[in-house]
Design a protein that fits this description.
Blueprint: H1 3-22, H2 30-53, H3 56-61, H4 73-100, E1 107-110, E2 113-116, H5 117-152
Antiparallel strand pairs: 1-2
Helix pairs in contact: 1-5, 2-4, 2-5, 4-5
């Protein structure tokens, strides 16, 4: 497991716990969230296509990464897009699972505490949504910087 995945998992877990304890979340906005994340996936794939056909990507391929000397800067850039697309797709799949599979009868029990499985799943979807929005903004900023650097060369 990569560090990035571990940190994302811990962040998701923290958000789920906070949402479950302090907020009464619902799933009424999930249709809009699916639309937004679908657009984010389209943006990511289009951005990757632009990067792949750019002459500047050859320069990135020839520069070694400062974080990991086994990778180039192009590898890091593609990894960021790949991670985001996986996150976006996971979010959509989980929301669709929640919408179309009847899970109303399941409850989780920890010691003497009973937790509604649907509530945990809804909060998990919300946490993935929050992280997806953050990742989309980060990806947009990264692509903007790429376009500016590409124009300079």
């Amino acid at each position: 497991m990569t560090k990035r995945f571990k940190y994302t998992f811990l962040l998701i877990l923290t958000i789920v716990i906070i949402l479950t304890i302090f907020f009464d979340t619902n799933k009424s906005a999930f249709n809009e969230i699916i639309t937004f994340i679908s657009i984010a996936i389209g943006f990511s794939i289009t951005s990757l296509s632009i990067i792949a056909t750019s002459k500047f990507s050859k320069n990135l391929y020839n520069k070694e990464s400062k974080k990991d000397n086994s990778k180039t800067l192009l590898h890091e850039l593609v990894d960021d897009f790949q991670y985001s697309i996986y996150l976006f797709t996971s979010t959509i799949c989980l929301i669709l699972l929640l919408k179309f599979i009847n899970l109303d009868e399941y409850n989780l029990r920890f010691w003497k505490i009973e937790i509604d499985f649907i509530e945990v799943l809804v909060n998990f979807c919300w946490s993935l949504t929050i992280i997806s929005i953050y990742e989309f903004i980060k990806l947009f900023n990264l692509f903007s910087k790429y376009v500016i650097k590409s124009a300079k060369e």
